[in-house]
Amino acid sequence: MLKKVVIPAAGLGTRLLSVTKEQPKEMLPVFAKGKNGDLCLKPIVQLVFEQLYHVGFREFCFIVGRGKRAIEDHFTPDFNFVSMLDSKGKDGPASDLENFYKMIDSSTVSWVNQPEPRGFGDAVLKAKSFAGEDKFMVHAGDSHFLARDADHLRRVMDASLKMNANALFLSMEVDDPRRFGIIEGEAMVDGLVKVKRLVEKPLKPASKLAIMPVYVFDSNIFKALEATKAGFAGELQLTDGIQKMVDWNLNVYTTKVGSDEVWLDIGSPDLYWQAQNLSHKHYSHEPAH
Fold first, then answer.
1. Distance between CA atoms of 222 and 238, rounded to whole angstroms?
2. CB distance 117 to 12 below 8 Å
3. Domain range for residue 199?
4. What is residue 264's three-state secondary structure?
5. Is 195 helix (H, G, I), strand (E, B) or coil?
6. Are 222 and 103 members of one domain?
7. pLDDT per position as a tens digit, 21-37
8. ∠23-28-34 over CA atoms, to 5°?
């Protein structure tokens, strides 16, 4: 059973300036459903955390950068504020916050600083002491999937165990593969693909199958990242580390996002606008629990 998850949340979010000058993009809100069934807004990183908690994770390591105190503050329970909301009759928001704080209280949350933005691979490498020799999940803090009962996470975890994978991650067919890390591989049973090659943002993509930022790794990823040279702008890419694992003939697989599962990406203004619309549509039509 996987227990540990690493949540990189240290990117600069330059494509979303000026709103990200003083607040992390991971704190940007999208629509969600409150405990009482009402439509509400939550920071995307909170939705990521709650979904991971829902499938059983209790050990969290956030990789944060300069000026990311807002995330740490948000994940610091403030029950006095909950009491104040209660006293003013705002029991819906109070109940939602209390529920979130109880999740944090029953988890172990670690914070690791990435002082310079040196890439997603470098952020993962910062979690080496947290992960130790255990298998662990990596889930980007600015990317969220709307899926029934978080099935996409369960699928990644189950497939990793079943295939005894050194690395296994989510992927999705995309319209413009030049914007993504692209996978070339060999289709297998159960919808899995054995990965043969990975290329970050190729000019001439060999496929439309793109890497999605939800992964399960064993400790080989740290050896691979340590053996990988930094690329453009001194950034260490996680894709290059996974390619190193492929080169070493380790077991690297991917499983696709389901056709009924929705990806919320907030990486640029147009994608954030789309994420707002998709989340609003999803939770407006979802029956109250």
1. 10
2. yes
3. 147-258
4. strand
5. strand
6. no
7. 778 889 999 999 887 78
8. 135
Length of the chain: 289
Tell which residue, 204, 164, 168, has the closest CA to residue 185: 168
Phi, psi for 253 (deg, rounded to 5): -135, 165
Can you give the three-state secondary structure of 35-92, one letter per residue? CCCCEEEEEHHHHHHHHHHHCCCCEEEEEECCCCHHHHHHCCCCHHHHHHHHHCCCHH
The reply to whether 102 and 131 lie within a common domain is: yes
- Assess contact for 44 and 266: CB atoms under 8 A: yes
Distance between CA atoms of residues 68 and 185, nearest Å: 37
Listed in sequence order, the residues at least 6 apart from 181 whose beta carbon sits closer than 8 Å to its beta carbon are 198, 199, 200, 201, 210, 211, 237, 239
Based on the domain organization, do 14 and 97 belong to the same domain?
A: yes
Which uninterrupted H or E stretch holds 279?
helix 269-285
Token pair listed for 103: 């999740």
CATH code for position 197: 3.90.550.10
| pLDDT (tens digit per residue) in 213-249 | 999 999 999 999 999 998 878 889 999 999 999 999 9
What pTM does this model have?
Answer: 0.93
Helices (H), 64-203: 69-74, 79-87, 91-105, 120-125, 128-131, 151-162
Question: How many domains does the structure of the chain reveal?
Answer: 2
